[in-house]
Amino acid sequence: MKDYAKLWVGYTPKKNNRDCSALSRIVMNGASENDRIVKNAVSELKDGLKAMLDIVPDVTFGMAGTDIKVTKGADIQDREEYSITLNTDSLVIDGKSASGILYAVFDILRTVACEKSIEKVYAVKKTVRPSNPLRMLNHWDNMDGSIERGYSGKSFFYVDNEIVIDERTKDYARLIASVGINAVVINNVNVKDAASYMITDRYFDKLAQLGEIFAGYGIGLYMCLNYASTIEIGGLDSADPLDEKVIGWWKEKMAEVFAKIPTLKGFLVKADSEGRPGPFTYGRTQADGANMLADIVKEYGAIIIWRCFVYNCKQDWRDKKTDRARAGYDNFIPMDGDYHDNVILQIKNGPMDFQIREPISPLLGGLKKTNQMLEVQIAQEYTGQQIDVCYLIPEFKEILGFKTYCSENDDTVADIISGKTFNSRYSGIAAVTNTGNDLNWTGNYLAGANLFGFGRLAFETELSSEQIAEEFVRMTITQDDAAVKAIMDILLRSREVYERYTCPLGIGWMVTPATHYGCSVDGYEYDRWGTYHRADHLGIGVDRTDKGTGYALLYNEPNASMYNDPEKCPDELVLFFHHLPYTHVLHSGKTVIQHIYDTHFEGYAEAKEMAATWDSLKDKLDAEIYENVRERFERQLVNAREWCDQVNSYFFRKSGIPDEKGREIW
Ligand code: GCW
Question: Per CATH, which fold does 134-476 belong to?
């Protein structure tokens, strides 16, 4: 059987740096050579340089330093900082801990793998302090091996309700540590069936082993908890967070869990959401639930990450006042300040659910006294499912750069989640991951750019989408300059292309219900999920202004006024906030209806261009990579055409307004 791909840690021979003498002597300061992370760092370095340049470096150790104790997020950033200094005949790594050394090693390997000159890159001492304390991947893997919203095969963690540990487990740790990930949640937030037993001795041994492998690469192990464990596995009749019996059960349980899995760093909890149990069932607040667990795990130095994805999924579509977009804010803002200091609220980037375009969640910039983490999704549930290429880093850059006006300075989302704005105890960024047991890990080779890019961006938020794309392509696909440029171009335009042929102007949700792939304009209309476009023969969009659901006013000024006014609201979000006639003229000068027609025809045409560009690279690329992406493009074009024709036909039929350019609409 063919082996799985090593992606960007599959080091192959390189031309540059072969005569770089500094690479043959590497000094590591800051941690003991006996530390397991340092040992892994040394073997990464030696194996990588041998494979790429046929150099076997002489590695020596200087001062071990004193490791920084972690009691808050900023300690993590301090510990993981590193510097690289170039001397005439050596490279000196200064880490503040073993993790810092490991990241420095990956920095050097990346430079070599991208064929950049060591002499130039490190001409001036390079120091990097990670932008965020927690840089996390959330697996939605189920223990039966399936993956919720997984499009890259099955889970590599679980087969038939057993935990699998093999060579691939270690390569996974290498892969993600190399881009700076330091935390992984290994099971689906929807904790059901066997997964409820992960906190029992049925799985402790394997979990402990897994935790050790991760720890060797500076990665913390996290799990999702079933909030109703007291009932489901504990034999109690309640999960009320204020009930003494419930609290007593959790205390005992946690003592057992942390004794058996010493590397465990904490839990992620989805409660009171989409049918999952939670504190609301008992008339308690989200803070009551989160704090109860947090107080118990505190003595193990652990944290509780509590998701804010709490909304009513049994809405009445006739009711125009209830607005799913408001739910996170309405459920979590009243308790701001009540969450204990080892609780982090995890907030999806938008108020809905990972649509191709959403405004930023008003919780970000709304919450001021609570630890916060941003949640994004690289699994592409609504953005092409690793069939359609959709490089998400430009979107993440926009999210991180969004000014929330929550304070005078340092008020962007990046500032908030780095911990800077509110001097938060803990903070960071998590992505719902896109990996599975496909031989190339992410289904589509180009989707690997989102895994790579998420890690790089979480570690160094200042990096540009272009830099990240180039690193990914050079390290994973090709060094041919023309091909690199062409593939970067595909990646960098892919998100806007996807947006153009799918949902217009921020409206979202015109997807096939349940699967969330492909077009179904009315799929979620007249249903209970709270996700409407409200199109009729006159217009389209959801009135979220002061005259509608009031959602726009949840933002700090001047954002609230901007979103509340259709004349000021940015075009790309205008239908998210406003119900407008098809004849409304956008800032672009086009009417809403003409915008819909134009973008859909353009999006489909551009998808064809991207596919043609890929075809033209055939002779330059590895045959397997070429064929994998070619086949995905073939499916993407079918999808893009379907979206284009369905959306255009739908709105032509509703509005009766013809396309100015007279193109074919069905
Ligand atoms: O919208 C939903 C997804 C679910 C997912 C949920 C969540 C894990 O369609 O599959 O469940 O988001 O984020 O909890």
Answer: TIM Barrel (3.20.20)
Tens of pLDDT, residues 631-661: 999 999 999 999 999 999 999 999 999 999 9
Instruction: Report CA(432)–ligand 1 centroid distance (Å).
Output: 10
537 vs 574: CA distance, rounded Å: 18
CA distance 427 to 208: 25
- Statement: residue 1 has pLDDT above 60: no
Please indicate whether residue 148, judged by its CB atom, sits closer than 6 Å to ligand 1: yes
Residue 660 alpha carbon to ligand 1 centre in Å = 40
Mean pLDDT of the chain: 97
Please tell me if the CB atom of residue 272 comes closer than 6 angstroms to any atom of ligand 1: no
pLDDT-derived band at 221 (thresholds 50, 70, 90) equals: very high
410: left (phi over 0), alpha (psi -120 to 50) or beta: left
Query: What letter does residue 512 receive in the DSSP assignment?
Result: P
Question: What's residue 64's pLDDT?
Answer: 81
Cβ of 149 below 6 Å from ligand 1: yes
Strand-strand pairing, 427-432 and 134-138: parallel
pLDDT in tens, 82-110: 999 999 999 999 999 999 999 999 999 99
Superfamily, domain 501-542+579-655: Alpha-glucuronidase, C-terminal domain (3.90.1330.10)
Positions of CATH 3.90.1330.10 in the chain: 501-542+579-655
Report d(CA 593, CA 647) in Å as an integer: 11
Q: With the C-alpha atoms ordered 352, 354, 357, 362, is the resulting torsion angle positive or negative? A: positive
3 state SS for 640-651:
HHHHHHHHHHHH
- Cα–Cα distance for residue pair 71/76, rounded to 1 Å: 8
Mean pLDDT along residues 469-481: 97
Total count of residues recorded for the chain = 666
CATH number of 7-128: 3.30.379.10
Tell me the best of 269, 274, 348, 361 to mutate to test the pocket of ligand 1, counting ligand atoms within 8 Å of each CB and taking the most. Answer: 274
d(CA 535, CA 592): 12
CB 495 within 8 A of CB 449: no
> 128 forms bridges with which residues in the sheet?
82
Q: Which residues in the chain are classed under CATH 3.30.379.10?
A: 7-128
Question: Does the C-beta of 270 come closer than 6 Å to ligand 1?
Answer: yes
Tell whether the model's pLDDT for residue 212 goes beyond 80.
yes
561-582 per-position pLDDT tens digit: 999 999 999 999 999 999 999 9
Compute the CA torsion angle 316, 322, 327, 333 (nearest 10 deg): -150
User: Which atom from ligand 1 is nearest to the alpha carbon of 149?
Assistant: 10
Mean pLDDT, rounded, for 509-513: 97
Q: Which residues are catalytic?
A: 274, 353, 381
Q: What is the DSSP letter of 68?
A: P
Location of each CATH 3.20.20.80 domain in the chain: 134-476
